[in-house]
Amino acid sequence: MAESGQGLLIIACGALAHEITALKRANGWTHVDVKCLPAELHNRPERIPAAVRALIQSSRCHYRSMFVGYADCGTGGLLDAVLEEEAVERIPGSHCYEFFAGSKVFAELAEAELGTFYLTDFLLRHFDRLVIRGLGLDEHPELFPSYFGHYRKLVYLGQAPTPEAIEEGRAIAARMGLAYEYRPTGYGTLETALKSAVERDETHGRDTQRAAEAIVWRR
User: What is the 3-state secondary structure (H, E, C) of the chain?
Assistant: First the structure.
């Protein structure tokens, strides 16, 4: 962790920017800054560890502590290797579906139907850009069976959805020819992990302040 600087830096996936900003605002975390890497890195997860390391190293002297707003996210343990070297923690879990739903619930969902396509609020908002246009399905809809033929169900894990979003999730499932289930999750482990990171930073700040005051007193 950074020994100089003030406050906490959260280095996050761009897919979590909306949720982390909402949590920061709701909790009054005025000493917390957020820097996001492009969500499109999920298309090349092998690039995530190096991108996270670069941002940690370029930011270290400016912050008292740092926390990484990623799960493993398909890096196969490579992100954890970087974070161990840099002495920075991350959100526990394999991916955002797991930390939003909770490990137990996600395991139950996966066991009930392996062929499940998951939506989050972010993916719902950007479905056309990331999935339809991203996979070329706008120009080649005949490829739908090639991409999604092994899926049977769509589960929308909603963080803070509107009624319109829930119905939009239903429409996406129908478009993909999948059964639909909506699961309200809130922010799940994302919220608890960030709160713990903020509490650790505040404790670190108080300890540092007391140590500085003790030095001044002895003088």
Answer: CCCCCCCEEEEEEHHHHHHHHHHHHHHCCCCEEEEEECHHHHHCHHHHHHHHHHHHHHHHHHCCEEEEECCCCCCCCHHHHHHHHHCCEECCCCCHHHHHHCHHHHHHHHHHCCCEEEECHHHHHCHHHHHHCCCCCCCCHHHHHHHHCCCCEEEEEECCCCHHHHHHHHHHHHHHCCEEEEEECCCHHHHHHHHHHHHHHHHHHHHHHHHHHHHHHHC
Could you report the per-residue pLDDT of 115-135, keeping only the tens digit for each? Answer: 999 999 999 999 999 999 989
Question: In percent, how much of the chain has pLDDT > 70?
Answer: 91
Token digits of residue 8? 């906490």
Distance from C-alpha of 202 to C-alpha of 187, rounded to nearest angstrom:
22
pTM: 0.86
Round to whole Å and give the CA distance between 77 and 68. Answer: 14
Terminal CA-CA length for the chain: 28
**CA 139 to chain CA mean position, Å:** 30
Q: How crowded is the C-beta side of 173, counted as CA atoms within 13 Å?
A: 20
Q: Evaluate if residue 211 carries a pLDDT over 80.
A: no
